[in-house]
Amino acid sequence: MISRLDHQILWIFAGLLGLLLVASIAGFILLRTARSEGAKATVKNLNARIIAWWKMSGIFLLTLLMGPHGSIVLFALISFLALREYMTLIRTTRADHNTLFWSFFVITPLQYWLLYISWYGFFVTLIPVYAFLFIPLRLVLEGETAGFLDRAARIHWGLMISVYCISYAPALLILHIPGYHQDAKLLLFLVIVVQLSDVFQYVWGKLLGKRKIAPHVSPNKTWEGFIGGILTATAIGGSLWWMTPFSRLQALGMSLLLTLLGFAGGLTMSAIKRDRSVKDFGSMIEGHGGILDRMDSVCFSAPIFFHLTRFFFER
Amino acid sequence: MIRDWVAGLIAAFARGLTGATAQWVDCPPMAGQRVYFANHTSHLDFVVLWSVLPQEIRSLVRPVAAKDYWASGVRKHLAVNVFHAVLIERRHQAAAKLDAQHDPDAHGAEQDQPAEQKPGEHSLIEHAMDDLLNALGDKNSLIIFPEGTRGTGELPGPFKSGIYHLWRHRPDVEFVPVYLANLNRVLPKGEFLPVPIISRVTFGPPLKLEPHENKKSFVGKAYQAVCSLREI
Predict the structure, then answer these.
(1) What residues does A212 pair with on adjacent strands?
(2) B21 CB near a chain A CB, below 8 Å?
(3) A139-143: which pairs have CB atoms within 8 A and are 24 or more residues apart?
């Protein structure tokens, strides 16, 4: 609904559009100037990423305009696809089949339906409490005990990361903060800061990156990328304080925390990929890998952002 | 055409559910007549294989399935009218019954095993081969599952020799190995509800064969060709 648009959101949209245009022009110029084969491959991947960013921003902003229900449906779909990438990658066995069916077609939709009807108490407990107990029980009913604890833990961990943690992003829409008309601006703030942190870690890493920060877990991450990305995204987040219920200093602190959590998410999810010896979780997003490769930083930052905001600012 | 519509809808659903993508390894997607032969682990196998083919050639590619599973009701309608499936008799009435007890809904191209042939079986095999050759005609391609029945593991079970006899009759046709990954996780044998695990369809280079290849070496090459696509 266009009537939902206040001038602050228009400014954000204009800013994102400008950023994408600048990135696209830079990508175009780099394509003309790249000489060596290695540089050409990097620029090609960069341009694929930029095109994917246009599409992702378009989809995200369009669903945002449709109101809270649009975003809830979008994130439900993202969780479903993320869970699918996760379950495909880990080892599941024949005896897990029915439990997986429950995870995909009952627990995941239920989690988002609870958001849809704003049932907060059930939303926060469905997966950590009820699914936590239900999954091992459903596995027991199959009568297969080999690797039992492993299988139960893997399935539950997948639900926690891909469904529970991601669902905290649209959950921001049901927060009521006195004196603040949020109109999805909290969700926008979270996604902008966390994703820009990823983008600038990549950009600074490509420009200056030398010292590896975690060579065994994530060989492409460097100290230069880490520091540059965190600082840049924190500064941008701090400068967006006017769209949040936070003061300037609070917005800066929140942004720093979000970027650090995002980094932690990327690192943790990389460990899973290395364990299964793959580079990416999937191939759905050109240049980026899978949905889970794009959402790993949101998985870690969204729940903490939600609870901090709720604890200190709601009521 | 309603048929194309239904077929397109089923193909889109199968691709959506299984997230299946095609990988063509040294094998151009568009070509003349082919026999696609694949490992067999799920009822979804031929639908998914068929759905990742380029749309232009789908109507010319006919899956081969066992008559006892696909011969009635909605299944038959789908198999015959939508997918143009070639339904063939299993190798022996009794053997089929035994199979049915063991695996009530097994399907796939059950082919002959001359070493175990019993009297009366021969004509049945000839009959099935005639059906296959007719279906192939001069412009169609076939999808066959040389194991004859669905397996449970990542590696296919031993291939039956029907694929060899088919080649003897039609050496001009390309034999393309296909590996179907993860479909046994989407809809395993004996399950009714599917789970949306991402699957992959890998097409390998057509078999390179000597003019006088014997049965053992042909079947061995075909088997190896499918298995070698597992790691790609």
Answers:
(1) A222
(2) yes
(3) A139/A95, A139/A96, A139/A99, A142/A95, A142/A96, A142/A98, A142/A99, A143/A95
Residue B216: which H helix or E strand, with range?
A: helix B215-228
Beta bridge partner(s), residue A302: none
User: Which range is least confidently modeled, A5-9, B66-70, B89-93?
Assistant: B89-93
Q: Closest Cα of chain A to B107: distance in Å?
A: 20
Residues above pLDDT 70, as percent of chain A: 98
C-alpha torsion angle, residues A210, A214, A215, A218 (rounded to 10): -100
Task: Give pLDDT, residue B122.
Answer: 61
Chain B: residue whose CA lies nearest to A87: B197
- For residue B88, name the pLDDT band (cuts at 50, 70, 90): confident
Task: Indicate yes or no: CB of A97 within 8 angstroms of CB of B197.
Answer: no
Q: At what angle do helices A37-65 and A68-89 cross, to 10 degrees?
A: 140
Q: Which residues of B touch A87 (CB under 8 A)?
A: 195, 197
Spell out the long-range contacts of B54-60 with Cβ–Cβ below 8 A and sequence spacing 24 or more.
B54/B29, B54/B30, B55/B8, B56/B30, B57/B29, B57/B30, B57/B141, B58/B7, B58/B11, B59/B4, B59/B7, B59/B84, B60/B139, B60/B140, B60/B141
Question: A212 CB contacts (<8 Å, ≥6 apart)?
Answer: A219, A221, A222, A223
What's the ipTM?
Answer: 0.86
Q: Check residue A146 and report its DSSP letter.
A: T
CA nearest neighbour of B33 among B171, B173, B178: B173
Query: How far is it, in rounded angstroms, from Cα A34 to Cα A29?
Result: 9
Q: Which of A80, A87, A98 sits opposite B197 (nearest CB)?
A: A87
Give the one of A80, A97, A283 whose C-beta lies nearest to B188's C-beta: A97
- When mean pLDDT is compared over A114-118, B13-17, B109-113, B138-142, the highest value belongs to A114-118
> Which amino acid, B169?
H
Specify whether the CB–CB gap between A194 and A298 falls below 8 A: yes
Helix axes of A68-89 and A148-159: crossing angle, nearest 10 degrees? 150
What residue type is B192 in one-letter code?
F
How far apart CA A83 and CA B211 sit, in angstroms, is 49
Distance CA A231, CA A220 (A): 19
Q: For residue range A248-263, what is the model confidence (pLDDT) as tens digits?
A: 999 999 999 999 999 9
Tell the burial category of B167 from Cβ atoms under 10 Å away from its Cβ (0-12, 13-18, 19+). buried
Helix (H, G, I), strand (E, B) or coil at B182: coil
**What are the φ/ψ torsions at residue A31 (nearest 5 degrees)?**
-60, -35
Q: What would the two tokens of residue A278 be? A: 């793959």
Residue matched to tokens 């893997």: A154
B9 at the A interface (CB within 8 A)?
no
Those of residues 101-160 in B touching chain A at CB distance below 8 A are: 152
Does B22 lie at the interface with A, CB-CB under 8 angstroms? no
